[in-house]
From TrEMBL:
GO terms for molecular function: structural molecule activity. It comes from Nocardioides albidus. This is Phage tail protein. The lineage of its organism: Bacteria, Bacillati, Actinomycetota, Actinomycetes, Propionibacteriales. It holds the Pfam family Phage_T4_gp19. Transmembrane segments: none annotated.
Length: 145
């Protein structure tokens, strides 16, 4: 039995996020990179054997990015607060990177808008790493490469 090793396995340890070429920093967690085909059910007159399942559109989930607080937090907060001043949707990029900085995978996001920023829970009785979470909405993504 021959076992081959794929040296390009996508082991992502960090995720770089850019919005219109502005670097928002490195995140340690990225969730929600998925899409779903919304199906519509149609019953055909005279056909009692089944119901037609027709694809109608794609639905994209919001993406949640998390990381420890750091120097990039101020830049992120500024971008999120820009929505209040009349925001235009932008393009975004998420790059999955190995520990050595090699880009393993990259996705372009269409019409990105920030939905929610969640800061750390501040409690001196339970010392732990302070983290922040960014949630973004978009109109679709495309894998690069």
């Amino acid at each position: 039995m021959v076992i081959t090793q794929d040296l390009d396995t996508a082991v992502g340890v960090s995720f770089v996020v850019k919005i219109d070429d502005e670097d928002l920093g490195v995140f340690s967690s990225c969730e929600g990179m998925n899409c779903e085909v919304v199906m519509e059910s149609r019953e055909e007159g005279g056909n009692n054997a089944f119901v037609w399942q027709l694809p109608s559109r794609l639905k994209y989930a919001n993406i949640k990015l998390s990381r420890p607080l750091g120097p990039s937090t101020a830049k992120l907060a500024s971008w999120v607060s820009s929505v209040a001043a009349g925001y235009q949707r932008k393009t975004g990029v998420i790059q999955a990177m190995r520990a050595d900085g090699t880009i393993v995978a990259e996705w372009s996001l269409i019409d990105v808008v920030p939905v929610r920023w969640t800061g750390p829970s501040l409690n001196s009785d339970q010392p732990k790493v302070l983290t922040e979470t960014l949630e973004i909405a978009h109109h679709g993504f495309q894998a690069k490469g």
